[in-house]
Amino acid sequence: MTEITRLSDLDATPHANVFPGSEPKTVRLSLAAGERVDSHRHPGRSVVLAVLDGALELDLDDETHALESGDVARFDGDRAISPRATEPSTALVVLAPTAAD
Questions:
Q1: Where in the chain are the domains?
Q2: Rounded CA separation 72/32 (Å)
Q3: Is the CB of residue 80 less than 8 Å from the CB of residue 61?
Q4: CB 3.0–4.6 Å: which of 29, 37, 61, 98 could bond 91 by disulfide?
Q5: Is the dihedral of CA 33, 38, 39, 40 positive or negative?
Q6: Greatest CA span in the chain, whole angstroms?
Q7: 60 with 90: CB under 8 angstroms?
Q8: Gene3D superfamilies this protein is in (predicted)?
Q9: pTM of this prediction?
Q10: Tens of pLDDT, residue by residue, the chain (101 residues)
Q11: Domain 24-92 - what CATH class?
């Protein structure tokens, strides 16, 4: 089965679930300049964050990473994450279940 979604169709929802009920969970994140997502974790997930446009400061635990359009970050969901837009930004976040050992 193939599902196709146009990201611009999700503009009304800043944290839109791109394919509801599907794994891996995929979220389109839209932030205004200066807007921050409060620190949180995604236990049991591996996270990929791709900046589609704009620029973000990505806080992971006690580290801050400057990301701009075209950058992709991958990290463990057990880390505390808090992205902040330094300009209007859109990112695609994929939250994949971590494989059991």
A1: 24-92
A2: 19
A3: yes
A4: 29
A5: negative
A6: 41
A7: no
A8: Jelly Rolls
A9: 0.89
A10: 788 888 888 888 888 889 888 899 999 999 999 999 999 999 999 999 999 999 999 999 999 999 999 999 999 999 999 999 999 999 999 999 997 65
A11: mainly beta
